[in-house]
Structures are given as C-alpha cells and as structure tokens.
Amino acid sequence: MISFDRMAEAAKDLDETDPLARFRGRFLGSADVVSYLDGNSLGRPPRETDAVMSEFIRQSWGERLIRGWSDGWLDWPRTLGDRLGEIGLGAAAGQVVVADSTTVLLYKLARAALAARPDRREIVLDTDNFPTDRYVLEGIAAECGLALRWVRTDPAAGITVEQVAGAVGPDTALVVFSHAAYRSGYVADAEAITRLAHEAGALILWDLCHSVGVLPVQLDDWGVDLAVGCTYKYLNGGPGSPAFAYVNAHHHAALHQPIQGWLGRADPFGMGPGYVPADGIQRFISGTPPILGMVPLRGALDMLAEAGLPAVRAKSLQLTGFVLDFADAELSRYGVTVASPRDPARRGGHITLRRADFRDITDRLWERGVIPDFRAPDGIRVGLAPLSTSFTEVFAGLSVLRELVCATP
C-alpha cells in the first residue's frame, strides 16, 4: 500500500514529467479554490477568453454590427462543427453542426431518426443515462405512441455489449446511450454497440457529453448514425456554450428534423412560403446561431488541437489512476468505495467515490476550497480536466477529503 507521504511525492514527480504541464498556466484560477475537481462538469476558462470576448464585442459586433453576418457568422455552426469533428470526434467535414443545447439537439435527432423508422415502435435506452436523455425520450415516446425498452444498468458501471444484444430486436427503431456514463465514467464499447444496433435494423444516437475532449472518439470509423454533446466541460466553451450534433452523411437526405426553422431552409433569405430543407448538415440548424457562445470555443479547440487528444487521454488515465491509488491507500479504510471502472479501457475522465454522508461532506469540501460535485444518492465525482489540472492540485483536494472522512467515520 502506498503511503500518504509517497502519494505527495508521486504527485510532484508526475507534475514534473507532465508533457501537458505548459497548458495549466493558460487557464484562469480562483483565489479561494484550493483544488478544482469539477472540470468534467464545467471547464475552467482559458485566459485568452477574456481578451477574445472583449475584442469580439468591440470590433466584430461593435464596429461591424449586422454586417458581421455577411462576414461569416452564419457559417460558424458548420465551420466550427468541422473543426470539432476533425479534432475531437473523428468526423469528416460536413457532418457536425454547433447550435442549440444538448437537450434540443437530442430531441431533434431522436425525432428525425424515429420518423425514418416508421414501422418500428420501440426505443432502447438505459436506466442510468443522464436525466435529460431519459426525459426527452420519455416525452417523445408519449408524443408518438412508442414504447421504451429500459436496460437496467449498474450505476457503478454502464451499458454493456451483452445487455444491448439482449435488448434490441426487429421492433427497435432507435438506440440511445451515453458513451461515457455521467455517474461512473464507464466508457461503453461504442463501436460494438453501434454494430449490434445496425444488425437489428435500428439507428443509434450517442450522447458524448462526458467523452468529447477527453476520450478518443471515432464516429465515422465506428459507423455511428447520430451523436450529440455539450462544449462546456472538457472543451472549456463556458457555461451554457452551444452544443453540437453529428449526423452521418449517409443520412442527410433521408432525415428531416422536426424544428423547421428558417436557417435550415434551402434558401433562408428567400423568405418564401413553405419549408424546403437545405442540403447536408445545414438542414439540422433551426434558428439564429448563438454566435457569442461560440467565441470562446474557437480558441479552446485550438488549444485541444495543440495538445493532441492522445496526450490528453494519456494524462487523463494517469489522473484517474492517481485518484484510485489514493482512494485505495487513504480513503477505503474510512468506508469510501469506488464506483467507477478500474479497467483503463473502460474508464472515462472522472472517478466517483461513495459514502453515505457525502452530500454533507461535499458542502464542507466547498467551504474548504475543494470543488468536486455531488451525485445522488451518495457519490462525489472527482472530475479531472487534463489540460488545466495538476496532480498536486488533485492530491491537495483528496487530502482535505481524507481529513473530513477521518474526522467523521
């Protein structure tokens, strides 16, 4: 068992040899935060965001005014989508659009997929998927008279290939899962599960909120039909930054999204009667793009490209491995258990620790400047953003947690 002192030394050694250490200084900090362990929920702001936003407001918006739309703003959903697809999604150009929120895009894509399978009456999903996914699908099922086939998943794990094989069938229209489980961080075998859905004749929609920017994703190679995700976690786009949708090019002509806004029309400025969808990914845009919300994301994607996703994933595994070592050596004796995968291939960017009193302890951690988040009924998620988080910072936060669980056995 590794000693507490040795864990401190290991954190320093890992920081000294960290090939991504140069990025930590490129993020804003907070004077009252000792350890920020919630980068999987809201990423820190890059330092350059302040200047970039100010410049945009003064010049692009303030000087160009409405002429900014002619300067290229209208293209941002697609050009930024192409950039994200290239850097973080394994998606060729013309298949990703940045717009709306995850919830709205999930609704759009799910409804479009179901309309493309009119003779099938079932949606397959799991019991521990993120609430918005479940709620949206419940609403769609009620709206369209469809059945929900629930796969009961272990909150400490996630959806497995074997479970999917037993759930899909000739009546399955759509399969919806998260690539990385929001509670445990479990990474599903997206390629194998996608193949199973297709063998059953169904379409599949992946939620990438907890994997984009920290896990290797290859949507084209996996043959994924549809995907959605947010940009305010590991992509550091800022609170409420716009989400993204991926629609495989094979489906562009066949899928018709349900929220028919003017910018998804073939000739939006023709202002004519009737809705004729645009070609390609443009048809999945509805209303005016959230330009201000896209400004920070542009620089954040450049930073991710500079670091390289393989290096980000390698450090992520080191960070989560460090948390597991600390939990085994220093927290398990006080009744703290791990509710995340230990297998690196199945482990995402965060670790969930459990103890009955963790709701109260989370409040006390925040008072001490240690910021994880709590997930009911008894889990603390230790979220680890590789570009902005040091091992020493993680050790400092876990040390406070150790002190609190030791004092309240």
Automatic annotation (TrEMBL):
Superkingdom of origin organism: Bacteria
Cited Gene3D superfamilies: Aspartate Aminotransferase, domain 1, Type I PLP-dependent aspartate aminotransferase-like (Major domain)
Signal sequence, renumbered to the chain: none
GO molecular function terms attached to this record: kynureninase activity; pyridoxal phosphate binding
EC number(s) on file: 3.7.1.3
InterPro entries given in the database record: Kynureninase, PyrdxlP-dep_Trfase, PyrdxlP-dep_Trfase_major, PyrdxlP-dep_Trfase_small
GO CC terms, sorted: cytoplasm
Residues binding pyridoxal 5'-phosphate: T102, T103, F130, P131, T132, D133, D207, H210, Y232, W262, T288
SUPFAM superfamilies: PLP-dependent transferases
Names of required cofactors: pyridoxal 5'-phosphate
Entries under Pfam families matching the protein: KYNU_C
Keyword hit for Hydrolase: yes
Catalytic reaction annotation: L-kynurenine + H2O = anthranilate + L-alanine + H(+); 3-hydroxy-L-kynurenine + H2O = 3-hydroxyanthranilate + L-alanine + H(+)
Pathway(s) per entry: Amino-acid degradation; L-kynurenine degradation; L-alanine and anthranilate from L-kynurenine: step 1/1; Cofactor biosynthesis; NAD(+) biosynthesis; quinolinate from L-kynurenine: step 2/3
Similarity comment: Belongs to the kynureninase family.
HAMAP family: Kynureninase
Protein name, as recorded: Kynureninase
Organism of provenance: Pseudonocardia asaccharolytica DSM 44247 = NBRC 16224
Organism lineage: Bacteria, Bacillati, Actinomycetota, Actinomycetes, Pseudonocardiales
Gene name of the record: kynU
